[in-house]
Structure formats: structure tokens, C-alpha cells
Design brief:
- There is one protein chain.
- This protein is of the alpha+beta class.
- The chain has helices spanning about 5, 10-15, 80-85, 90-100, 110-120, 125-145, and strands at about 1-5, 15-20, 35-45, 55-60, 70-75, 100.
- Strands 1, 2, 3, 4, 5 and 6 form a six-stranded antiparallel sheet that branches.
- The chain starts with a strand and ends in an 8-residue tail after the last helix.
Length: about 150
């Protein structure tokens, strides 16, 4: 998985999805989140032969950019797409279309809350379509460059 901003930096900067958490003075933070801005940073598959149609999102806080707070897998197609094409148990298809914490990647004490916020507030139709469009732009740029070559 490659960060979207490495191939499409202008679009990524302009169209990153962020949330703002406000905590009243003296109140306990909600779900382990402190007041601040949190970004859902997009990563896409760099294998041009793969048609997984999903995004991997790392959630980071502006005030703590070196720590991944949640790692989320999300796919915008119907469950049947993922059941047919991906070698996962059938229940995994339901999780990927809702968004799920990635069991292989970094999580934090706030990851469950960030997933809930993703599912209830971040993931609307407009954002789903944006992720799909970003995936297409990412693949087009990857093809144009002849595949992924890490910066030297």
C-alpha cells in the first residue's frame, strides 16, 4: 500500500478528510481522543494487476503526526464484490464495506472510537465517491509512471 499523497500530492492535500474533536474545558476526552484535528490518510494498492477496490486509512492527529492512532480497511463496492474476489472468510466482506480496524497494523487506545466516528460521521456518500475517484486517479498515475518506484 502506497500513500495517495505520494502520487497525487495536490489532490491529497486539498481533499483529505479530517475531523475536529472539541473537548469542553475540564471535560474528559471522548473515547481516548483529546481535542484537535485528526486526518484519515489514504493508502492504495500499488499492484496494477490487483483489483481490490479498497483503501487503507491511517488516522493521525495534527498534534501527534508520528503516531498512527487507527488503521482502517474500507471497500466501497458491494459485499458480493469482496466475497467473490478476496480470499477472506465471508464475514470479512461485511466488515470491509462498513470499515474495520486492520488486525495486522498499528492501533491505539482511541482506534475503536476513530472507527466509530468513521462509520457514523466520516463515511457519507460524498466521501465514498471521493475514495473511489482517488483510487482511480491513483491507478492512472501509477500506470503513467510505469508502476511504483520508491523515492531514492
Amino acid at each position: 500500500m502506497i500513500p495517495f499523497h505520494t502520487l497525487c500530492p495536490e489532490i491529497a492535500q486539498r481533499e483529505v478528510r479530517c475531523i475536529h474533536v472539541l473537548v469542553a474545558s475540564g471535560a474528559v476526552s471522548h473515547g481516548g481522543l483529546s481535542a484537535g484535528e485528526y486526518a484519515y490518510v489514504e493508502f492504495y494498492c500499488d499492484d496494477l494487476d490487483c483489483d481490490c477496490r479498497r483503501v487503507f486509512l491511517e488516522v493521525i492527529a495534527r498534534h501527534q503526526q508520528d503516531k498512527v492512532l487507527a488503521s482502517i480497511n474500507y471497500g466501497w463496492e458491494k459485499q458480493s464484490f469482496y466475497r467473490k474476489r478476496l480470499p477472506w472468510p465471508p464475514d470479512a466482506a461485511r466488515d470491509i464495506v462498513r470499515g474495520a480496524l486492520d488486525p495486522l497494523n498499528q492501533q491505539s487506545e482511541a482506534s475503536e472510537e476513530l472507527l466509530r466516528i468513521f462509520q457514523r460521521q466520516v463515511l457519507d456518500e460524498k466521501y465514498r465517491l471521493r475514495l473511489r475517484r482517488h483510487h482511480q486517479l491513483f491507478r492512472e498515475e501509477l500506470r503513467r509512471r510505469g508502476g511504483w518506484k520508491p523515492p531514492t
